[in-house]
Amino acid sequence: MNYEFMKYNLENLKKDEIIVYLRKSRSDDPMLSVEEVLEKHETILDEWAEKSLGEKIPEENKYREVVSGETLKERPEINKVLRQIESPKIKAVCIVEPQRLTRGDLEDIGRLMKLFKHTHTLIITPQRIYDLQDEYDWDAFERELKRGNDYLEYTKKILSRGRLLSVSQGNYIGSVPPYGYDKAFILDGKRKCPTLVENPEQADVIRMIFELYVNKDMRRASICNYLDDMGIKPPKGIHWSPAALKDMLENIHYIGKVKWNWRKTVTVVEDSEIIKTRPKARMGEFLIYEGRHKAIISEELFEAAQEKQGRNHRAKAKTKIRNPLAGLLYCSCGRAMSLRFYKNSDGSERCSPRLLCDGQKYCHTTSCLYDELIEKVCEVLEDSIHDFEILLRNDGKDSAKIQADIIKHLEKKLQDLQAKELAQWEAQADPDPSNRMPQEIFKQLNEKLLKEKEEVQNSLREAYASMPEPISYEEKIIKFKDALSALRNPDASAQKKNQLLKNCISRIEYRREQSQRLKKDTQKDVKLKAGGNWSETPFEINVKLLL
């Protein structure tokens, strides 16, 4: 048997205590599908399990990653595995090679290794076993993961060069064809080249959109209504949207071109977190090449559309936030809600501002007064502050502190046992036989020590699994009070209120039934809308707090 496996007593491992994690990598055969690669790796690990444990790992302990993602955050199955190893019943994770766990950056590698180390979880491959409590295994495992990350970065550079070369030759390498085309392959010598072919039905819709926009001088919103009335289905969703039309009117694929770096990945830092975004580039900020596919519209018509779009451009970047609830308030239909002001021709206020669903053409949720909804949000903040103060008085962090002390005590006990084990082995390896204890006594003491060590490790895993998430109630009270004070302060800017609210609230969902016209004999004791005998139904909000 391999020495690496002799270091560990696999007989103590049960099949239910091992998780199998499967993932396809760029280094695998590109001709094989994800399912074929995972099946191949599963066979390898099943054979190992039968040989080493005498039986296969049960199906419920197998996790198959079919989503492609560079970081741990982007892969749902590995996150399930990492949550599972917090449980004391899981003692090992079995993989084909270490790099299957992650090929992410140093931050990902560090997080993964700490989780396996502090949960005392073994990492098993058919070649060797890694116990990250052991410094040599730690170094070896770290080198493997770093080598995987270096290979990933190199592969990305090579692939990026290949994609750029393909686009420069006129190929369409996108996964989804633009509306008006279907994806196809053509032969260039012996090479299969990806390109676009016209979808007759959709191409006619594109021609109609450009014609209506340029020659009929229709606005994008009017064209959307026109297409909906004709029963033409949009590429996504149920109804056509002006935003979708804007993208189509700017899409250079319709004049027989292909583009590169139109949505380049940009890394930015927001609130001390590294975030990857893919902003749309403006004309002139990305590369354009002659495509292999045929144009749907003429370049003259396309340029005319760009000229008109330029005249109608709205500089949103310079617009200041007027709604404190922007990005937070949503209608029950899923659309965002906007703050509407109503003024007379002389600039005076005609009526109080109201909050209205942006999808009024299709959603008929009744609007509400801005002041009324703000008051409801203030009540939620006040209630939350009151709850936090009660928890603080009762010392809500007591349980976390007790659990932290238990973990610290167990970690110290485990270190002492490991030191004792090392001392026993060193004494037994003494060249002078008189300093060594009889082999039978040594074996008994060692078994007793290993059993005690395993019990402490299990206790430590249980303590980690039941560790409550620490919450700073003092900090929460300050944040919620700041947001409440800003909402109650008429001089505070909408942008400031919005910023403070987003520190406390992730989403507000608004729900209200349509107002109904009442008969004359039912109008007593009913709140009526101004301007008629309409009942004002109460509204509800569901506020999701950031805790």
UniProtKB/TrEMBL annotation:
**InterPro entries according to UniProt:** DNA_bind_recomb_sf, DNA_bind_recombinase_dom, Resolv_N, Resolvase-like_N_sf, SSR_resolvase
Location of the Recombinase domain: 178-315
Q: Does the keyword Mitochondrion apply?
A: no
Its signal peptide is none
> Metal-binding: is it a keyword of this entry?
no
Q: Which residues form a coiled coil?
A: 400-466
A GO term for molecular function = DNA binding
Tell me which UniProt keywords the record has, alphabetically: Coiled coil
Which protein is depicted? Recombinase domain-containing protein
